[in-house]
Write a structure and sequence with these properties.
Blueprint (H helix, E strand, L loop, with lengths): L1 H10 L4 H11 L7 H23 L7 H21 L6 H31 L5 H33 L6
Length: about 160
């Protein structure tokens, strides 16, 4: 049940903010960069998992109003970071910054779903296993979105003869 919930959470168009974040996160990458993309997505999932766990256990509780403002800000910052660093010479340093930002933004996105998941997990027999299953489903859903994104990108560059820089 929780695996499916995690998978559906990410691929549900009602949660377009999560999908948009993953698409924007992948925007500067190509199929050859799949390893880098998967590391970024996993960093996001780790952050997401951390705040889901902390919120579910009532260790942290942040107003959903604040989180709903911060989620689009994470998408905007990621997009701006991609634009600013598109042709950057110092990719290694920016890569480390992007991994940290992605993890941090995962923390924020995790809080966006925490109240709903907390209510669901209150009936679960084993919160740790349920939370783990949810996040595995989430990770696989994100990988599906990554694969779709890089395939569409590949097709656009191939058939419309766009130039990559």
């Amino acid at each position: 049940m929780f695996f499916e919930l995690g998978f559906e959470h990410i691929i549900d168009f009602a949660g377009y903010d999560h999908i948009l974040f993953i698409v924007v996160l992948c925007a500067n990458y190509f199929i050859k960069d799949i390893k880098k993309i998967l590391i970024l997505v996993t960093a996001f999932t780790i952050g997401h998992t951390a705040t889901l766990a902390l919120a579910t256990l009532d260790i942290i509780n942040i107003s959903s109003y604040i989180i709903e403002i911060l989620i689009p800000v994470t998408i905007l910052i990621t997009a701006v970071f991609n634009i600013i660093n598109k042709d950057s010479k110092n990719r290694l340093k920016q890569g480390k910054i992007k991994y940290f930002l992605t993890f941090f933004f995962g923390l924020i996105h995790g809080l966006g779903f925490s109240n709903y998941l907390r209510a669901l997990l209150s009936d679960a027999n084993d919160i740790v296993i349920s939370l783990f299953a949810f996040n595995i489903g989430l990770e696989l859903g994100q990988i599906l979105i990554v694969l779709i994104t890089v395939c569409v990108s590949f097709l656009l560059f191939k058939f419309f003869r766009l130039k990559n820089s």
